[in-house]
Structure formats: structure tokens, C-alpha cells
């Protein structure tokens, strides 16, 4: 199954508590792409209003979530 470019990053952000559509849009605007937003620094997160708790949640998600595996799970379920 083929997914749209950058789907894995949108999926990843969806799994992070405290980062909703508005914060994500601000982060993408600041960083230039959803991929760059996924890799954003603490300073970038703070600049768009993401608090320490949500920043920590994103840092943990980047370490714990295998985005490619998540896409494979979705494909295996026939979604996408």
C-alpha cells in the first residue's frame, strides 16, 4: 500500500498528547515541513507555544514510536 508523502510524521504527531492541529500547523510553519517539525529542537517547540510536558511527550515519542512500523500496521489492516 502506498501512502502520501510524510504520512508517517502526521501519524506520529497524532500519537503525541498535547500536540493538536493548531500547534502542529504552527510548528510546520516554523520548521518548513512536517518532517522537520518531527525533528524540531526544544527551542522551536517553545517558540510555537508547546509547553515542557508536550515537548517531553514528543521527545519520548520520537524515541519510542517506529513510524514505518506504524504504517505497516495500518496497511496490514487494509486502511490507508
Unreliable sequence segments: none
Rg estimate, integer Å: 13 Å
Q: What is the strand content?
A: under 5%
Q: Summarize the biggest pleated sheet.
A: none
**Could you estimate the helical fraction of the residues in percent?**
55-70%
Oligomerization status of the protein chains: single chain
Per DSSP E runs of 2 or more residues, the count of β-strands stands at 0
Distance between the termini: 7 Å
Helix-strand pattern: HHHHHH
Average of per-residue pLDDT values: 92
What report would you give on this structure?
The protein is mainly alpha-helical and 80 residues long. It has one domain. The chain has 6 helices and no strands. The chain has helices spanning 7-14, 21-31, 34-38, 42-47, 52-64, 67-76. It is globular, with a radius of gyration of 13 Å. The protein starts with 6 loop residues before the first helix and ends with a helix. The model has no long low-confidence stretch (mean pLDDT 92).
